[in-house]
Design brief:
Length: about 250
């Protein structure tokens, strides 16, 4: 990856711990959306594949990789409400507040992104979260100022697995697609990268199994904390990676 110029990071499961952040937040959001109606809460938990006692989602949950635009209609049906823009905005607003209260990073993203930025990489977030929420979380975790762009599902470029977020960054900042890599933990991230002609770095830190993605990744790491060493930004012996996929 010697010619790599830009790293575009997924957020949840890559920079932010999914279950510790969203698993804890989800229960509170569901109760608020359901106005503490136990039956309505149970319906939301069911369609969300959410284990309330463990405060986590099953890997099959539509919330693991999707935005409120994806799972919002399921919630609207469970609550007997229209899945209109106001309903989705309410979900985003509540999740933004509860997400900040429970925000838990994976490793040391501010330090890692600082090292990558100092080494000359352009950096961005490409997430199926709302853009403003992603900005707030990045600011809270101390790395918003390191990012050249934050693209959310509502930024006007579509959501993953579509390639719009990645392609828009390449066009705006004049990066060759193959000189960019999407860093993420899901098949949505892989599809977004490949659809834009970019490379894909798989992290094993997300909530769902990723063994079936390993063979399609250009590089596999345990977490973003491994990237400075592996990309030659900091000295030391590289951490574990899938050698046949390292290029």
């Amino acid at each position: 990856m010697q010619d790599l110029t830009a790293l575009l990071f997924d957020k949840d499961g890559t920079l932010v711990h999914f279950d510790r952040t969203w698993g804890r937040a989800a229960g509170a959001v569901m109760r608020q959306m359901a106005h503490d109606d136990a039956h309505a809460v149970a319906r939301l938990e069911a369609v969300s594949h959410y284990l309330a006692d463990e405060e986590r989602f099953l890997p099959t949950s539509p919330l693991v990789s999707g935005s409120s635009a994806h799972y919002g209609p399921l919630w609207a049906h469970a609550l007997g409400r229209p899945a209109d823009a106001g309903f989705l905005a309410e979900i985003d607003r509540l999740f933004a507040a509860e997400g900040l209260l429970n925000l838990t990073p994976i490793g040391h993203p501010a330090r890692v992104l600082g090292e990558l930025k100092a080494a000359g990489f352009a950096l961005a977030i490409v997430t199926n979260d709302a853009e403003e929420n992603a900005r707030q979380q990045a600011e809270t975790l101390g790395f918003l100022h390191l990012l050249d762009a934050v693209h959310g599902y509502d930024s006007g470029f579509g959501s993953k697995p579509g390639a719009g977020m990645v392609a828009a960054f390449a066009e705006r900042f004049c990066h060759r697609p193959h000189a960019m890599a999407v860093v993420g933990d899901s098949a949505h991230d892989l599809a977004a990268a490949r659809g834009a002609g970019a490379r894909f770095i798989l992290v094993r830190s997300g909530p769902a199994p990723v063994d079936d993605l390993v063979g399609d990744a250009d590089l596999v790491v345990d977490s973003v904390d491994d990237l400075p060493e592996i990309l030659g930004v900091s000295p030391g012996k590289p951490s574990s990676l899938v050698g046949e996929n390292a290029v």
